[in-house]
Amino acid sequence: MRIATLGSHSALQILKGAKDEGFSTVCLCLPGKETPYRSFKVADSIVPIARYEDMLSVNLKDCILVPHASLVSYLGEKVQKLTMPYFGDKVMLRVEADRGKQEEWLRSSGLRVPRTSDADAIPGLSIVKFHGAKGGQGYFLCSTPEEFTQKIGERKDYVIQEYIVGVPLYLQYFYSPLNNELELMGVDRRYESNVDGLGRVTAKDQLSAGIEASYTVAGNTPVVLRESLLPEVFAMGEAVVRASRKYAPKGLFGAFCLECVLTPELQFVTFEVSARIVAGTNLYTQGSPYTALRYSEPMSTGRRIAREIRLAIERDELEKVLG
Description:
By secondary structure, the chain is of the alpha/beta class. Helices cover 28% and strands 24% of the residues.
């Protein structure tokens, strides 16, 4: 059995982790995207594709495909048509892509979530987000219906959330359907352009230059939480997994992420859930401080996915980890 993924997002650690677990690896690459995977020697074979939609017709022998956000973003609803065996649950990716269903899922989990509003009733400072895994691209702030109308353009696939002031934190998990156990894999913050650089520009200069905040993700930085917060972090992850089972029989499993803001009162407000590996895990190709506590060897999220697949094969339970 081989492990395959699309050459983007978190493919380096997915492929490296697969090799560490003894798998042969395949990287599907668009033209001009092959260099990192050749240079870092993580791909045993590289399969060229001319465009993302070609993934739908690829059916490599003895391969399991590991999804990530680029696959979800570029294929959209078409991801449901993938023919290769697939780690994870496609139904949960569909729920992730719909902001309304996401909010319903998080609320049913008992998590605190931001209030949402209609375009004609924006109560104060809010952030407008678009459906799908776009890495924050196009998000904007507004405080009134008039400001929203000026900025929205022709887009229809949006949600308006109250803007929560606090520390943005991205909680990386892995849920094993083989062991029925939740693991905390790491925590990160995103570095977003240009909002994270605005602190270096005075408010006066921002106003005079007409600078608008933008939230496109440029990279990630590691975070270690106060230890007293960890019981709630585990409880949140477990609640989201339980609630996911009303959407699909297997529910959420494998890698996922809760995207939160920690308020000054040390309360987590969860504004998003990603039902697959997130790019913040790329910080931890040798494992995070949390995986170091659990494992005696380096354990990235990519390697943890590969280990789950290997264990499923050894136990003859592969159907439990394939969507």
